[in-house]
Design goal:
The protein is of the alpha/beta class. Helices cover about 45% and strands about 20% of the residues. The longest helix is centred in the first third of the chain and has 13 residues.
Length: about 120
């Protein structure tokens, strides 16, 4: 049987965080939860998830800075990173991809869309 993939979810809106985690767990993923970028960095370094989903607009440290910290760290730099954001403008999406994110999903998104996007970046071992 193949190993369950672990996804780190970084979202400062707790209800949305729980909804995303529920969707992921229902679809067979293990989850790690962080409500801010600093907790996310610590979790990512200590647990090395298979993928990171992150909000863009967060208090203190935003998703772009989180992405930079993830990519600057030797142990986490190769983890696929997907932004989840209410910023739906094409310029916002381009900024996210240019910053090094693998993908950029705009809120609101469906559970089906989320899982489809995630599965594009997970390699089956």
């Amino acid at each position: 049987m193949q190993e369950k993939k672990t996804i780190l979810v970084v979202e400062d809106e707790l209800l949305l965080l729980q909804n995303i985690v529920s969707i992921l767990e229902f679809n067979g993923f293990n989850t790690l939860k962080a409500s801010n970028a600093m907790d996310a960095i610590s979790l990512a370094k200590n647990n090395i998830p298979h993928l990171i989903l992150s909000d863009v607009m967060m208090e203190k440290v935003d998703g772009f800075e989180l992405l930079r910290m993830i990519k600057d760290n030797e142990s986490t730099k190769n983890i696929p990173f997907i932004f989840l954001s209410a910023l739906a403008d094409i310029a916002d999406k381009n900024k996210g991809i240019s910053a090094g994110a693998n993908d950029y999903l705009t809120k609101p998104f469906s559970g089906k869309e989320l899982i489809k996007t995630i599965n594009q970046y997970l390699v089956n071992d």
